[in-house]
Amino acid sequence: MSNVKIPNRKKMERELPLVWDINDVLGYIKSHGDKVCFKYFENNTLLEMTYFEVYKTVYKVAAAFGKLGLSGKRVAVIGDTSPQWLCSYMGALASGTVVIPMDKELAVTEIEKFLEMVEADAIVYSKSFNEKLAGTIDSHPTLKLFIPISFNGDASDKIIPFADFLEIGAKHLEDGYVAERIQNRDAMCEMLFTSGTTGTSKCVMLSQKNIFSAVRSAIQSVCFVPDDVLVSVLPVHHTYELMCLLAASCFGITICINDSLRHVMKNFALFKPTGLVLVPMFLNTMYKRIWSEAERTGKDKALKAALGASRGMMKIGIDMRKTLFKSVLAAFGGRLDHIICGGAKLNPDLIVAFEEFGISVFEGFGITECSPLVSVTPYYARKLGAIGPTVPCCKVRIDPNGEETPEGYVMGEVQVKGDNVMIGYYNNPEANAEVFTNDGWFRTGDVGYLDNDNYLYLTGRIKFVIVLENGKNVFPEEIEEYLDAIDTISESCVVGRKNPDSDEVVLTAVVYPDFTKFQKDVDDATVKETIRKAINTTNKRLPTYKQIKAVEVRKTEFEKTTTKKIKRQLVK
Q1: What is the spatial distance between Cα 188 and Cα 58, in angstroms, rounded to a whole number?
Q2: Cα 333 to the center of its chain, rounded Å
Q3: 3, exposed or middle or buried, with CB in 10 Å at 0-12, 13-18, 19+?
């Protein structure tokens, strides 16, 4: 893989938006005027909102928060991605309100406990939470105000429908309300919960300096251009998606909101994106779908032949990919040019595979505690397998763990220092003491190394490492890259099982098969044997100590986070 070259793009000469806080972002949003900012579905109808309409809505939200005495207080936002959700988020930041983006997949009891933990005063929520939060209104110990985005019931002292909320803001603006410039960029303005139960989840505190140093770095490092069209697919409460959407809005990019994962391919065809922001699981699924469709229609041999021909032409400087793979690109709307991929480790083979179809994949690395961006692939200086140098707002060092790569690079924990690193965990001095070094570096919990060009490579998470009886460390993510490329495997999780008769740790692949690759009446033994043979073939590409020794097949998908990462702690 290290010998495979992927093309670089010419570094663009462009005037980059320069943002330091939410006021700067809103200035750019206003400047884009009547250009379409959002395309979105409401009651199955496709609607649009211009940048100037977004600007006005954000300031109505900010004014309403001010009028209702919520400036300086804490307000949660939860639900499906929508312009109203994003305007509430930005309006909170503009009014000096501390915003708490919440995971819509959480159980209501967890939501209630989290919001009690941080003493939230109000909550803005989408239609899907109208019934879920009905019992919370009179029982929650800290929430005093409920703001439903879409609501058919009666307003009350505690319930203000979003339309009425905006009217309050509009009146307050008429009366002379002006959102003040941000005075202290180091003050807490956002609270985010890490994945976990109420007992294990930690609350990350971020400042405007944290958030917008990451946004500014994304603007500087990624090949966004004003003519791009993005489709928002990932959960909006996650810092990764929020950062990318804020950066896109500074350029004046049109952001199309996917209404359901069931409709994602249909919406790609409708919106015709030029760019996407995804996690590796989406990318892997998209790639497998390309080949499944080719096999279903009997075009797989022709596709393989076209790939071979394209490789030959590319060697002599002829690029016919957009023509040769027109049918492949059509499934994504016909214009897809680049994908930013983060949230988990990405198999470099997928970068090569999509590049061959004419779609460039640029990998990023980050963590909520770093707002989240730490490193991203430069579009003009790519290295396969590397994420890239750190972004301008921070620096990275490696805390040695005693291991080296075959090339002699020192391996160890990736540690970060910079403007993007969080204030700390809320009311959790023990966790803060654990996660920061004595000299102030943030411990990411990821293991990797830096090469001579200061490009970052990741190998896995410290907490998931499997220690073999010979002392060798195995990071399951490395092996899963190979397993997930097997067409009969839909999802995989590598674990270390103890041999009951010895101290040997047995590397075991727990897999959820892609049952569409088997006959409907297939028996369990055949499924397992087919997968076992495929894994045996894959083992030949791995060092002996990393080879899979046992296979377990499950009938249901793994439980995953909202960013589609398998919850490893639940794999028994």
Answers
A1: 20
A2: 22
A3: exposed
Rounded to whole angstroms, the Cα distance separating 380 from 141 reads 53
C-alpha distances (whole Å) from 229 to each of 25, 214, 281, 311 are 19, 21, 22, 28
Judge residue 401's burial from the number of C-beta atoms within 10 Å of its C-beta, 0-12 exposed, 13-18 middle, 19 or more buried: middle
The answer to whether residue 199 scores a pLDDT higher than 70 is no
Amino acid letter, residue 124: V
pTM given for the model: 0.91
pLDDT above 80 (res 394): yes
Which contiguous run of DSSP H or E holds residue 191?
strand 188-193
Q: How far apart are CA 90 and CA 148, in angstroms?
A: 17
The CA distance from 94 to 89, in Å, is: 9
pLDDT at 563 over 90: no
Query: DSSP H helical segments within 380-523, as ranges?
Result: 429-435, 476-483
Tokens linked to 377: 């692939």
Angle of helix 51-67 versus helix 22-31 axis, rounded to 10: 140
pLDDT digit string, tens, across residues 438-475:
999 999 999 999 999 999 999 999 999 998 887 788 99
Strand order in the sheet with 442-450: 394-404, 410-418, 442-450, 456-461
**Continuous segment of H or E residues that includes residue 110:** helix 108-117
